[in-house]
Every structure is written in structure tokens, then in C-alpha cells.
Write a structure and sequence with these properties.
Blueprint lengths: L9 H11 L3 H8 L3 H13 L6 E5 L8 H4 L4 E6 L2 H10 L6 E2 L12 E7 L8 H11 E12 L5 H22 L4 H12 L3 H10 L3 E8 L4 E7 L3
Parallel strand pairs: 1-2, 1-4, 2-3, 4-5
Antiparallel strand pairs: 5-7, 6-7
């Protein structure tokens, strides 16, 4: 079993996700108490995919996150650097154009996509700022970015309870349902270490995105950030 460290070496993170690929979607559903389904719906609304638009779904894993865009008639490219995840996805949804790629060095030309989105994956990238710049590079002028990521609950008492859940309850629950429970210890630590909502917004602006805004889901457990690429 592989457990990545918080320096996020790409080969360690990719190997870790290879290990959890088979039961990844089920584990997420259990650990989030079913909230991940609601979060995916909110991402779909924020991306607002339209027929014939090109959508890049980064950290797409098995492609579950790509389906809401595909059903709109958009052309969606699920991209991930875990070959294990992509193999599971290809087995279940063979018609999606799965692509192996690192968010800091995307295998796409400039100005290709109408929207780029990443859900619960940005905090696993070693160089966040490089990834945000790459996402902007492959987005067409006027296009948009939507980031869904774990964040910091806004109500202090709940934030304390949530942190306790992450560090104490999440690993044993993961042990009962995941094929690689040690990976979820890393995931809990990475969530706790991730910047808060205003800090991530500042990094988006620093990468060249404009009209940056965010809104909280589930009291700030998750935040949706959105930005645009100026024409």
C-alpha cells in the first residue's frame, strides 16, 4: 500500500490513487455521508456545460465527475495522472476519451477548452500555482475555471468537530471500506493543510484568472471557486 506525503511527489500520489481506484467512488460516498453527490451537482451547475462545448475535467479519476458534463451534450475530456483510476474508468465508461496527464504539464494546446474544472484534486498537485497557470493556458479567452475542493468550515465550533472527524474517525471508517486505508490518512492531512477560501482565491488571481469568486457548500467543508480568462 502507498501513502503519499505532504510534499506531494507526483509518483507517490499517482501510486496512492492507483491503490484505491477499485473502490474509490464507493469510499468517497461513505466518507462524505453521501454529500459528494450533492457537491457534484453544484459543480455541474457552476460549470454550466452546453452542447458542443469542450470541457476539461482534471483529476477525473474513474470519470464519475465527468458524467454530468457529458449528458449535456458537451465534449468532456476526463484527465488524470493515475493510470489505475483511468483503467477502472475505461472499463466502466469506455466511450469517454480518458487522457493521462499531469495538471502542471497538460498535454493540450493553448486556448482549447470552454471550461476547465477540477474536483478534490488540486490539493494533491505538487505545484498548485503551476497547475492554475496551465489550466488558464488551455482555456480559451472568455472561458472559465471551476474548482471544487475541501476547505475550512466557517463556524468555529463545527470546524473543531470536523477536524476531529478528519483525523480520528475518517481513517478507521476508510479501513472498513477502502482497498488502501492508509491513503485516506494522507487525504485527511492534506485537507487540514489546505489554504482557506480567500487564500485560494488569491492564488487564482495570481495565476491570471479574473472575476474570481467562491461560495461555500456544507458550511465551508467544501468551497466552489470560479474564475474567467480575459479575452
Amino acid at each position: 500500500m502507498t501513502r503519499a506525503s505532504l510534499d506531494k511527489q507526483p509518483h507517490e500520489v499517482a501510486s496512492m490513487f492507483d491503490d484505491v481506484a477499485e473502490r474509490y467512488d464507493l469510499t468517497n460516498d461513505v466518507l462524505s455521508l453521501g454529500q459528494d453527490r450533492r457537491w457534484r451537482k453544484e459543480v455541474a451547475k457552476a460549470v454550466d456545460a452546453r452542447p458542443a462545448q469542450k470541457i476539461l475535467d482534471l483529476a477525473a479519476g474513474t470519470g464519475t465527475s465527468s458524467m454530468p458534463f457529458a449528458v449535456t451534450g458537451a465534449y468532456v475530456v476526463p484527465c488524470d495522472f493515475s493510470l489505475g483510476m483511468l483503467q477502472v474508468g475505461k472499463r466502466n465508461r469506455a466511450w469517454l476519451p480518458y487522457t493521462a496527464g499531469d495538471a502542471t504539464r497538460l498535454p493540450f494546446k493553448d486556448d482549447v477548452f470552454d471550461a476547465v474544472t477540477i474536483s478534490f484534486g488540486l490539493r494533491n498537485v505538487q505545484d498548485t500555482d503551476a497547475a492554475l497557470r496551465e489550466m488558464r493556458r488551455v482555456t480559451r479567452p472568455g472561458g472559465r475555471i471551476v474548482i471544487c475542493e475541501f476547505s475550512h468550515p466557517t463556524w468555529a465550533p463545527f470546524r473543531t468537530v470536523y477536524t476531529e472527524y478528519l483525523m480520528r474517525a475518517l481513517p478507521p471508517v476508510a479501513r472498513s471500506v477502502s482497498s488502501s486505508p492508509d491513503a485516506y490518512v494522507y487525504l485527511a492531512e492534506s485537507i487540514r493543510a489546505w489554504p482557506d477560501q480567500p487564500a485560494l482565491a488569491d492564488r487564482l488571481k495570481g495565476a491570471g484568472w479574473s472575476k474570481v469568486a467562491w461560495r461555500n457548500l456544507t458550511g465551508g467543508v467544501v468551497a466552489l471557486h470560479r474564475g474567467f480568462k480575459d479575452s
